[in-house]
């Protein structure tokens, strides 16, 4: 018998000193280590962390969806 499956969504924030692309990729890579069967990652917003007027980190806020098996 097949179990029903559902998709759940979670919000993640990735950070990188180099680029928004690396910030987003890092968040997805980290999530894939603990969440099974990631389906979609949607970039919700991009921002930068500044210190003394200089960029110290690029940040990407993502919504990821993944498969969840229920009873």
Keywords:
single chain; 71 residues; alpha+beta; 3-stranded antiparallel beta sheet; 1 helix; 3 strands; 59% strand
Structure overview:
This protein is an alpha+beta fold and 71 residues long. The protein is built from 1 helix and 3 strands. Strand 2 and strand 3 form a beta hairpin. The model has no long low-confidence stretch (mean pLDDT 90).
Alpha carbon gyration radius:
15 Å
Multimeric state of these chains? Answer: single chain
Strand content: over 45%
- Total helices: the number is 1
Structural class, by secondary structure, is alpha+beta
Query: Biggest sheet, strands in spatial order?
Result: 1-3-2
Number of strands: 3
Chain-averaged pLDDT: 90
Overall 3D form: elongated
Helices and strands, with pairings:
Blueprint: E1 5-16, H1 20-34, E2 38-51, E3 54-69
Antiparallel strand pairs: 1-3, 2-3
